[in-house]
Amino acid sequence: MLGLIMDRPLLISSLLKYAAAIYGEQEIVSRAVSGEIHRYTYRAADARVRRMARALTGLGVEQGDRIATLAWNDHRHTNCTLQRLVWARCAIR
Question: pTM of this prediction?
C-alpha cells in the first residue's frame, strides 16, 4: 500500500480491534424489541465476536461458505454480523 494515506486496509475487523484497544471500556448500548436495554463494552464485543468466529472454524465453515442469520436488530444480530466479517477476513488470532 505504498503511496497511499493508510498503511493497512480499512476492514471492519481492524476497526473493532482498534475500538477494543483504545475504547475498550466504552459501552455499546442497544434496546431489544421487548424494551430491555443491553449494555456491553467494545472489549467484550471484540472477545465475543472472535470466540464466535473460532467456533465457526471449528464447525468446518470455510472461507467462501455462505452464512445466514435470522435475528432481531439488537446486540445479538450485531455480534453475528461482526463475527462473519471478522471471520471472513481471517482476523482471528
Answer: 0.72
pLDDT at 20: 93
Across 30-45, average pLDDT: 89
Q: How far apart are CA 63 and CA 90, in angstroms?
A: 8
Cell of 87: 471471520
How far apart CA 77 and CA 45 sit, in angstroms, is: 12
Q: Is 46:19 a contact under the CB 8 Å cutoff?
A: yes
Domains in the chain: boundaries = 12-88
Q: Which residues pair with 40 in a beta bridge?
A: 28
DSSP 8-56: S---HHHHHHHHHHHSTT-EEEEE-TTS-EEEEEHHHHHHHHHHHHHHH
Higher pLDDT, 67 or 4: 67
Cell numbers standing for residue 34:
421487548
Residue 75: all three cell numbers together = 446486540
